[in-house]
Sequence to fold (73 residues):
Amino acid sequence: ASSDSRFNYLITGLRMLKASPLFGVGFGQYTNQYENFTLSFAEFGKRTAHSSWVLALAENGPAGLLFFFALFV
Fold:
């Protein structure tokens, strides 16, 4: 069940990116937009991506992901 939830958070993040491919859905908006983009309602309410990489990509787009990656380099 845990791996299914994490996979759902990934798919939800990618759907957010598809809807806003340049700048994402906005900083701090993954939790607010989760129910609008999820395919699975096994969990509902404000949820986070459980992956910093997915969160950075969904909320800030590719440029945000690159900046986040730069922190590790």
Notes: The mean pLDDT is 91.
